[in-house]
Amino acid sequence: MTALKARVVEVVHETADAHSLVLEPAEGDRDRFGYRPGQFLTVRVPSGDGWAARCYSLCSSPLTDDRLKVTVKRVGGGLGSNWICDNVTAGDVLEVLRPAGTFTPSSLDDDLLLVAGGSGITPVMSILKSCLAGGSGKIALLYANRDERSVIFAEELKQLTERHPDRLTVVHLLETVQGLPTPAVLRSLAAPYTDRQAFVCGPEVFMDMVTGTLTGLGARVHVERFFSLEGDPFEEPEPAAETPDGEDAAEVEVEMDGETQTVPWPKSEKLLDALLRAGVDAPFSCREGNCSACACIALEGEVTLDANTVLDEQDLADGLILACQARPVTGRLKITYDG
Fold first, then answer.
1. What is the pLDDT of residues 127-164, one digit of tens each?
2. How sure is the predictor about 241, in pLDDT bands with cuts at 50, 70 and 90?
3. What Gene3D superfamilies does the entry give (predicted)?
4. N or C: which end of the chain has fewer CB within 10 A?
5. What's the CATH code, domain 250-336?
6. SS3 (DSSP) at 114
């Protein structure tokens, strides 16, 4: 079974419509909750007579926080956010998948530009705290909100700025004060930082505007986008289909958590299913090619992807693939989740 269990230790009311859940892994699952700054958890939520899943970013840092924390902002008509904000209390136990995602810096020593809108601050906060605690780079954060009352982590950001005045710059953009952010305003604010990699998260329209503006300035932009998952990724995978006569299975060497093992990979099967069936604790979430939770790096061999809405040309050039959509082209492959 791929599902993990986490107990809610505390519910923190960050703003009127944003709650943070402080989580404690079940004793037997503790080792499977390791995560990188900017990653997310997939949470199982009730849906009618069945179940669904929703992804929520971790705002905690693996370097500074003893427990994991996700922040959930209520969305009008949102299945998961409304259920969590209305029902989840301290002591409840949630089913989750292991932390995943590629919205994470390759080095904590790099200078970074972080841009967030609303609850998009959640993974950005994890990156920011981790870089300040474990790296040497400078961080600039541009954070857009409706008004002062809707600024999530306002006090924590103030304290971090006071603690790291030479390394952290925070600029708040409030709709009630400056109006909605515009490309011209963003170009002006981002101009000193265009030599840095940028990490952007927030509402879809906001991210599109920011990405277009920063790309036009020559910045390398990473974005975090979440989609409502259509299926229930917590369900066990379908039984393996028989390999057609005359078809040789590929072989894939998998590096994960410092260990290496080799498993057969039928050419008619997706990589994630082959790994899970072989007992490899591979991360995943949507199984639809929309979230990057299952992303890994192909070090040797060639694959095709049935679908891909999250990896850009640079990601693909760097060898990133989506395990839930990958099928083998070559007979022997090598992938890593430790890159």
1. 999 999 999 999 999 999 999 999 999 999 999 999 99
2. low
3. 3.10.20.30, Nucleotide-binding domain of ferredoxin-NADP reductase (FNR) module (3.40.50.80), Translation factors (2.40.30.10)
4. N
5. 3.10.20.30
6. strand
Whose tokens are 């004793």? That residue is 27
CATH architecture of the domain covering 112-223: 3-Layer(aba) Sandwich (3.40)
The pLDDT of residue 1 is 47
54 contact partners, CB below 8 Å, separation of at least 6 = 42, 43, 45, 79, 80, 81, 228, 229
- Report d(CA 132, CA 141) in Å as an integer: 13
Dist CA 55 CA 290 (whole Å): 12
Q: Which among 337, 336, 338, 333 has a CA at the least distance from the CA of 263? A: 333
More confident residue, 288 or 226: 288
The angle at the Cα of 38, spanning 280 to 55, to the nearest 5 degrees, equals: 70
Residue 304 Rama label (left phi>0; alpha psi -120 to 50; beta): beta
* Interatomic CA distance for residues 54 and 71, integer angstroms: 12
Closest among 17, 3, 38, 22 to 295, alpha carbons compared: 38
Q: Give residues with Cβ within 8 angstroms of 317, minimum separation 6.
A: none
Fold annotation for 4-99: Elongation Factor Tu (Ef-tu); domain 3 (2.40.30)
According to DSSP, the residues that pair with 141 across neighbouring strands are 114, 170
